[in-house]
Design a protein that fits this description.
alpha+beta, Jelly Rolls, five-stranded antiparallel sheet, three-stranded antiparallel sheet
């Protein structure tokens, strides 16, 4: 990533509450992720041609459309969700290094699919935290849409409104109706960007999904969210429930200390680690290199 682009993104994050930064995902990893997409979702042409009507039907409502979560069967998705560029970006937005991944999913949107894609402007914090957002360092959380394909106004780029236009809206007002907030809707911008870009936004930013207008078009994104480790009132996905899945065990073969710490795995040096737990975790994950934890435990 270009450091100047990250700095500009951080400045816009602090004022507008959102930004799009390009060239975050390396091209080879982006190619690998797009090669994996057809195993998860219909292609744009398959959906448009109705190749599998039953599969298409799953995308005709917002509530029931497939959205696989971390850990993913496709290793490329796991590598993107926890890529150093993504984690570095989260740390810089949050101004803290001890953070946790609390959401990870892949999603698809198609032309002529779910009718409820045309949403009201809303803030996301209501189903991400038990309280209300606090905007100083150590308390914020950050959501990212990682673009696996080009995202434009025609391919349903999220509409976003700068915090500069909404700061006076009461915190308990989560949805904005058009007839009451016409001036806010008039200030919408499209979070467009080429494949490999990341749309970054705060939980107090008003935004909305819109229908995909490009004929036979599709949009594919990988969505992640991060929080400071100490903010236990923030959450969405729970990862230990997947720890018996083969996808988790495949992920563990190549997982780094940084990646596992992001998921809540005890860090090297944590009091959890003793001779018994080191041996037990090594037995549970025989392909995980336990050296950092052994060295950090003092045993």
């Amino acid at each position: 990533m270009d450091p100047s682009s990250v700095a500009a993104c951080k400045q816009r994050w602090d004022t507008a509450g959102w930004c799009v930064i390009e060239n975050v995902i390396p091209p080879d990893l982006l190619d690998a992720s797009r090669a994996a997409l057809p195993s998860v979702f219909p292609t744009a042409d398959e959906f448009a041609d109705g190749v599998d009507p039953d599969r298409n039907a799953l995308f005709m409502t917002e509530r029931h459309r497939p959205s696989p979560t971390f850990p993913f069967e496709a290793e490329a998705f796991n590598r993107i969700a926890l890529h150093d560029n993504i984690v570095d970006l989260a740390e810089q937005m949050l101004e803290i290094s001890d953070i946790r991944l609390y959401q990870g999913s892949v999603s698809a949107k198609y032309a002529d699919s779910a009718p409820d894609f045309d949403q009201l402007l809303h803030a996301d914090y209501a189903n991400h935290t038990l309280v209300v957002p606090r905007t100083d360092a150590g308390y914020q959380h950050v959501t990212m849409f990682i673009y696996l394909t080009d995202v434009t106004p025609e391919t349903a780029a999220t509409r976003v409104v700068s915090r500069e236009h909404t700061a006076a809206i009461p915190v308990e007002r989560l949805y904005l109706h058009l007839d009451e907030y016409k001036q806010v809707y008039a200030a919408e911008e499209s979070a467009s960007g080429p494949a490999g870009s990341v749309f970054v936004y705060r939980p107090d930013v008003f935004h909305r999904g819109v229908p995909l207008e490009q004929p036979r078009g599709a949009r594919f994104t990988l969505n992640v969210a991060f929080r400071p480790a100490a903010t236990e009132w923030i959450g969405f996905h729970v990862f230990p429930v997947h720890a018996e899945d083969m996808a988790w065990h495949r992920f563990m073969r190549h997982a780094t200390v940084r990646q596992l710490t992001l998921l809540g795995f005890p860090q090297p040096g944590n009091p959890y680690w003793n001779r018994e737990t080191l041996a037990g975790v090594a037995a549970r994950y025989p392909e995980l290199d336990m050296t950092p934890w052994r060295d950090g435990s003092g045993t």
